[in-house]
Amino acid sequence: MPILRVWAKVFPVHQYSCASDKLSPRQIRQFALDKWDLRFEPNTLPITFGLSTTGHFFLRIVLGYASNDTTEWKDLSYARELVHKYFYQRYPRLRGIGLPNEWHGVTAHTVSTQSIASPVAAEQGDMVYFCGAYNGLGIMPSHYSAYLTARKIVGIADLGWYSLSRLNQQLSFPPDYYRSLMLKGSFNLLNSL
Hints:
By secondary structure, the chain is α+β, with helices and mostly antiparallel strands. The protein is built from five helices and seven strands, in the order βαβββαβββααα. The chain has helices at 25-30, 76-90, 140-153, 159-163, 176-192, and strands at 11-19, 39-41, 47-51, 57-64, 101-109, 116-123, 126-132. Strands 2-3-4-1-5 form a five-stranded antiparallel sheet. A two-stranded antiparallel sheet has the order 6-7.
């Protein structure tokens, strides 16, 4: 399998999420959680709150970029504190329900904010496709890109396939030292506002 060169086109963005246990219909009505649409808070770091269809109330905060494209975040305890702080500042009445479900995750992003759907390697007649990279606008664009890619693989090239961003159309990032200077500086500025 050849090296796919995808790493130069995407960068990892770390997020921390938490969710309540499943709430009863009475709790949901009591706190009027069913009256709130999914919301994106106007903070310096992207924060998402919402009630899932399963009855769990959740929060997600974007933490930023970690050096060396690592999938590990050095200070998860700080991330946890930050998430709880934002949650309880915004929803002080929910302090009693708790947030026992927590996780850290990483998504891949591109400079252009366009997801990538592209053949990336061909060897002995086999084609390898890459479909991914999030843009912060939600997961639906990536699902649609994957749908169009799957149809292309089986020989159906929808018009939408031709409008998707190809790997060679994405800007490349320099190696880690310069990448870190660009990305960590940006996220540190967001954290300080």
